[in-house]
Design goal:
The chain is an alpha+beta fold. The protein has nine helices and 16 strands. It folds into three domains: 123 residues, D-Maltodextrin-Binding Protein, domain 2 (3-Layer(aba) Sandwich), CATH 3.40.190.10; 87 residues, 3-Layer(aba) Sandwich (D-Maltodextrin-Binding Protein, domain 2); 69 residues, Alpha-Beta Plaits (2-Layer Sandwich), CATH 3.30.70.
């Protein structure tokens, strides 16, 4: 197999690693990762993967070290990377929602807006993101790189921080409050411009992206099958709980008095809908998980 038929994929190591590998597993790609190995062996022989920090990913993709990779939109922005943004993949280490980059200060500080940080000290891991934000707001401040534990540096070491938060719990635990949100961020699938121009690699990248999005779409949804007498079909399909469900599948059964009905639902409403279906006359109700939904 030539290099042209190999897709070099970068996977994020660290906080997003488990969520990313789990997403790929649902999409149909299994990776084996050794405890001290940065290589991730894929069951698809056309994919060669390496785990690196999400902060570095966009630069490596831009330079062609990887054909494609998953990283945060924030790190693409912070690296000012010239890459092809193939797809947005909204998932994170805790939930399926975006994270936020925020400006935070101590609860007891007098600072109320970004303008109040003129001439002050700000710690962050996202240097360019922060500097660009300050320039946009015509604020000059001393921005220093933080190697970690950024939340504990306020107020003794710096006046404010720019940090990423998903739930806000770490900020609250350190007596910090948010005075502004710089951006929302989520995982993005990005590609090298030359790889994107290669027909085989582009098709492979688009196929992987489609399957990843299909796995995310199925994340909170389930399928429900049931048998319904034809005489009761309208009563079942007219249930208030099924309003908004798009075109349930209705199939004929060997017994001409019955049909099979299949629908896809948000998992959160199943506990309400299944009892309603039973009361309306549905029988043999079966709920099953979904791995992928391709729209």
């Amino acid at each position: 197999m030539t290099d042209e038929k190999i897709l070099k994929l970068g996977l994020p190591k660290g906080s997003l690693q488990d969520a990313t590998l789990g997403l790929f597993r649902k999409a149909g790609f299994s990776f084996t990762v050794g405890s001290r190995n940065y290589r991730a062996v894929c069951d698809d022989p056309e994919i060669q993967a390496i785990l690196i920090r999400a902060q570095e990913m966009a630069g490596y993709v831009q330079d062609g070290v990887f054909d494609c990779g998953l990283t945060g939109l924030d790190w693409v922005t912070d690296n000012r990377a010239d890459v092809e943004r193939v797809s947005d993949l909204v998932y994170s280490k805790v939930s399926r929602r975006p994270v936020r980059w925020v400006v935070a200060v101590h609860n007891d500080s007098p600072f109320q807006s970004i303008k109040d940080l003129q001439g002050k000290r700000i710690a962050t891991e996202a240097m360019n993101l922060t500097k660009d934000y300050l320039a946009k707001n015509n604020v000059t401040a001393d921005v220093e790189f933080s190697w970690g534990a950024t939340e504990i540096k306020v107020p003794d070491l710096v006046d404010a921080i720019v940090d990423v938060t998903e739930t806000g719990s770490s900020l609250r635990a350190n007596n910090l409050r948010v005075i502004d949100t710089i951006m929302e961020s989520w995982t993005v699938f990005v590609a090298n411009k030359e790889a994107w121009a290669n027909d085989w690699k582009r098709q492979k990248i688009e196929s992987v992206a489609m399957l990843l999005n299909a796995a995310i779409a199925a994340e909170s949804r389930v399928g429900v099958k049931m048998n319904v007498k034809k005489a009761q079909l309208d009563e079942v399909l007219d249930l208030e709980e099924l309003k908004g469900i798009t075109s349930p599948t209705v199939s004929h059964l060997r017994d001409e008095e019955w049909v099979a009905v299949e629908i896809v639902l948000n998992e959160s409403v199943v506990r309400t809908i299944i009892p309603a279906l039973k009361r309306a006359g549905a029988e043999g109700i079966l709920e099953y998980p979904l791995n992928k939904i391709v729209d």
